[in-house]
Automatic annotation (TrEMBL):
<keyword id="KW-0378">Hydrolase</keyword>
<keyword id="KW-0479">Metal-binding</keyword>
<feature type="binding site">
    <location>
        <position position="212"/>
    </location>
    <ligand>
        <name>Mn(2+)</name>
    </ligand>
</feature>
<feature type="binding site">
    <location>
        <position position="135"/>
    </location>
    <ligand>
        <name>Mn(2+)</name>
    </ligand>
</feature>
<dbReference type="Pfam" id="PF00491">
    <property type="entry name" value="Arginase"/>
</dbReference>
<dbReference type="InterPro" id="IPR006035">
    <property type="entry name" value="Ureohydrolase"/>
</dbReference>
<dbReference type="InterPro" id="IPR005925">
    <property type="entry name" value="Agmatinase-rel"/>
</dbReference>
<comment type="similarity">
    <text>Belongs to the arginase family. Agmatinase subfamily.</text>
</comment>
<dbReference type="InterPro" id="IPR023696">
    <property type="entry name" value="Ureohydrolase_dom_sf"/>
</dbReference>
<dbReference type="GO" id="GO:0008783">
    <property type="term" value="F:agmatinase activity"/>
</dbReference>
<feature type="binding site">
    <location>
        <position position="210"/>
    </location>
    <ligand>
        <name>Mn(2+)</name>
    </ligand>
</feature>
<feature type="binding site">
    <location>
        <position position="133"/>
    </location>
    <ligand>
        <name>Mn(2+)</name>
    </ligand>
</feature>
<dbReference type="GO" id="GO:0046872">
    <property type="term" value="F:metal ion binding"/>
</dbReference>
<keyword id="KW-0464">Manganese</keyword>
<dbReference type="GO" id="GO:0033389">
    <property type="term" value="P:putrescine biosynthetic process from arginine, via agmatine"/>
</dbReference>
<feature type="binding site">
    <location>
        <position position="108"/>
    </location>
    <ligand>
        <name>Mn(2+)</name>
    </ligand>
</feature>
<protein>
    <submittedName>
        <fullName>Agmatinase</fullName>
        <ecNumber>3.5.3.11</ecNumber>
    </submittedName>
</protein>
Length: 313
């Protein structure tokens, strides 16, 4: 066991028993079709996190004090199916310990396992899929566990809402629910897309965020960059609103494909992760945006209000 902690936080905030948050690295890159390198994502993300300020100005909080446990890395890569099953079981293990579980990839196929675990543990789950790509193929290159199929299963058995989409195959139209899809080219002119998307969500929300949803001008280090993506503050405003109005039960962030020359994407990913935790556990009700939010502990209790008992699973 290494004594490495998330972001170099003190040991007292990094032990499992003291931690509300669990972070599971999954450096899997077995099915990517173009640029390889998402296997190096978790390492680059963790390195950038160590060089980040741990006080969040906006929420006036230090969310690491809720405790963030860096779990063992999921290394299973003998097949896409075996990897998905290992992710599924690992995530479920920590959800059942009543932790707020977060996962950092790796390519997007890992989310088939993360979503399966959350969907088994929480009632009426909404999956908020934030991505440039629709990822709705039932099967691709001989497997249902390809990154191009990341949310097909979720489209069949959860309330799937897709945001930022700007690349897909015609065949995916047969699976896609247009009423629950927010295309990037429409979001540009629809000032109500945030409210519209939130109105479609049930209370329990799992977020799967593919970093290629961001515009390549602010996040170039990803396997399949697409022009016309989201920018930093509009994304944060949306996420903040979702965390405020819904019971976000966990999230994953995928497809960081780092390179040696430009580290800015690694830092964006690190900051994004920390921002999402800060929104989840925001305690300071002096901040206007959070005046309706209970303190962090109540938020977490609420998190499990709709938790299925293990016997129900
Ligand atoms: Mn994508």
């Amino acid at each position: 066991m290494s004594d490495k902690t998330y972001a170099g936080i003190p040991q007292e905030y990094s032990k499992l028993e003291n931690s509300q948050v669990v972070l599971i690295p999954v450096p899997y890159d077995g099915t990517s079709t173009w640029q390889k390198g998402a296997n190096k994502g978790p390492e680059a993300f963790l390195e950038a996190s160590e060089n980040m300020e741990l006080y969040d100005i906006e929420t006036d909080s230090e969310v690491y004090k809720q405790g963030i446990f860096l779990a063992e890395t999921v290394t299973e890569d003998s097949s896409p199916e075996a990897m998905v099953e290992e992710v599924h079981q690992t995530v479920k293990k920590y959800i059942n310990k009543k932790k707020f579980v977060t996962i950092f990839g790796g390519e997007h196929s890992i989310s088939i396992g993360t979503i399966r675990a959350f969907n088994e543990c929480f009632n009426s789950l909404t999956v908020l899929h934030i991505d440039a790509h629709a990822d709705l193929r039932p099967e691709y290159e001989g497997t249902k566990c390809n990154h191009a199929c990341a949310v097909y299963e979720a489209s069949q058995n959860t309330n799937l809402i897709q945001v930022g989409i700007r690349s897909m195959d015609a065949i995916e139209k047969t699976v896609m629910d247009n009423d629950k899809t927010f295309f990037a080219h429409e979001m540009v002119t629809n000032e109500y897309w945030v409210e519209n998307a939130i109105d479609l969500m049930t209370d329990n929300v799992f977020i799967t965020l593919d970093l290629d949803v961001f515009d390549p001008s602010i996040l170039p280090s990803t396997g399949t960059p697409e022009p016309g993506g989201l920018l930093w503050y509009e994304t944060l405003d949306f996420l903040k609103q979702v965390f405020k109005e819904k019971n976000v039960v966990g999230f994953d962030i995928v497809e960081l494909c780092p390179n040696d020359i430009d580290k800015s994407s690694d830092f964006l990913a690190a900051k994004l992760y920390y921002k999402m935790l800060s929104y989840k556990f925001a305690e300071n009700d002096n901040v206007d945006d959070f005046e309706d939010i209970d303190d962090g502990i109540n938020v977490l209790k609420n998190n499990f209000a709709n938790f299925k008992d293990e016997d129900d699973v």
